[in-house]
Amino acid sequence: MNVQIIGQMAVSGALMGLVYALIAYGFQLTYATSKSINFGQGELVMVSAFFSLTLTNLGLPYWAMIPGGLLFGALMGLIVERAAVRLALEQKSEGWILLTIILGLFFFSSAENIWGRDDRPFPTPISADPIHVLGVDVTRLELSVAVGVIAIMGAIELFKRRTLLGKAFEAVSADRDAAELMGISATRTVMLSYALSGAVAALAGILVSPITTVGPTMASALILKAFSVAVVAGLDSGFGVVLIGMCLGALESLASFYLGSGWREAPGLVLLILALALRPNGVFGKATIRKV
Amino acid sequence: MLHVENLHAGYGASEVLSGASLEVKQGTLVALIGANGAGKTTTMRAISGGLKPSRGRVVLAGQEVQGLDASRIARLGLAHAPEGRKVFGPLSVEDNLLLGAYGRLPRFFGFRTKAQTDLERVYDLFPRLRDRAKQASGTLSGGEQQMLAIGRALMARPKVMLLDEPSMGLAPVIVQEVFRTIRRLKEEGLTLLLVEQFAKSALEVADYAYVMERGRIAVEGTPAELSRNERVIAAYLG
């Protein structure tokens, strides 16, 4: 075995793993405020990517397209909250699980009808030529994924710590009823968390599309891994998802290189089973994950 | 200032409150006493909106508020320091206090400057909170958490403050300190509704008191009157 190849595989895998981490972070945002997550999050990644592609095709430059895509993602997040989550939570039911899945299916068939079933390339001004860093080759495209993921997570965490609205977000996460007594509307805070989660999903789509292409099924594999990362790290683990996401990405890449590409999904599943058996609250988690 | 009339509320099919009425005049401290399970905390929750009353009226400073969301009622000037204190454990003491003033502070920037006078006032009232300003509030002792809960409610500059069982689970010397603070707040002109199991201490600071039994007000009067009432003495002051 060659150390340099292992390093190369691990680094490119870990950079892809950051996308899993970003989607898992989106789960964390809504889980914190409402103990619910959008099981159709993968479709949200996908439709946001298609929408961003459309913006690009309309002639919008890459950097102007990104805010448009994020806004669209936030809007979709709000639609999910209103259509699939709010009523179920008000009735203290678990109905949001089925409803978010159904809404995801609806988004999927809408996307097929609007944009077709083919995978399409996603143009980007960022070059895919490799540059040499510390003995391994990475492309600027891969680095842009890392920068984008860290930037949006950093921005949201800064918002939570430095603004009063962010502190209110944390207050609702800690104790919803007590937060209401302070004049903080829990409903609005849950809406905010779904909007942020949607924007995060959209960014994941924009970052990953130039590498994987855009198509109706682009997110189905991504989302499974994001679930694994969220469960393995814990749904309240904060930056724990970054570490687990990068580990999973690296493991996958090594598995497909040494065992063959058919084994690509194996590490994620093994990790998931191990985590559920040994640390059901997640490696970095505190509270119990709701069994669903 | 706060007027409660024929309040009915409960959990699911079981009715806990069956027609409670009470009145808190501006600048007075009213105590609500009674045995465990009489409905004191339920009354507080039904007033502040955590629990929707099924019948009855709650009037806060001339405005009907029954049925509104708790956050809405809070922004109209009712601060509720709940039973069990309910501080935001992962957040710092200062963040807890800032959130107490959420309704009247800017949401993004400059909120700390705008809250400075109120923060100083609370820190002067509870110097120990100043020392622990940056500490996660979940790591405070029970007494400190109670002070934080009261301080957080004060930050709202409320028209009426509801204070639910401030002495619960605290050592006697801390309970005395809490009651000294309550007396001081009343002297500063705060309008307070106090729920307390230590009926004696509550009657010492109150201007008027209600005794609750099985979801209704059984007896009411000034502390002097209640202290002469044989039924009250036998049940709560013996």
UniProtKB/TrEMBL annotation, chain A:
The chain crosses the membrane at residues 6-32, 96-115, 143-159, 191-211. InterPro entries: ABC_transp_permease (IPR001851), BCAA_transport_permease (IPR052157). The keyword Cell inner membrane does not apply. It is a multi-pass membrane protein. Keywords: Amino-acid transport, Cell membrane, Membrane, Transmembrane, Transmembrane helix, Transport. It comes from the Bacteria. The keyword Nuclease does not apply. It is found in: Cell membrane. CDD domains: TM_PBP1_LivH_like. Belongs to the binding-protein-dependent transport system permease family. LivHM subfamily. This is Branched-chain amino acid ABC transporter permease.
From TrEMBL, chain B:
Keywords: Amino-acid transport, ATP-binding, Nucleotide-binding, Transport. InterPro entries: AAA+_ATPase, ABC_transporter-like_ATP-bd, ABC_transporter-like_CS, BCA_ABC_TP_C, BCAA_Transport_ATP-bd_LivF, P-loop_NTPase. The keyword Transport applies. Transmembrane segments: none annotated. Residues 2-237 form the ABC transporter domain. It comes from the Bacteria. Gene3D superfamilies: P-loop containing nucleotide triphosphate hydrolases. Belongs to the ABC transporter superfamily. This is ABC transporter ATP-binding protein. The lineage of its organism: Bacteria, Pseudomonadati, Acidobacteriota, Holophagae, Holophagales. The gene is livF.
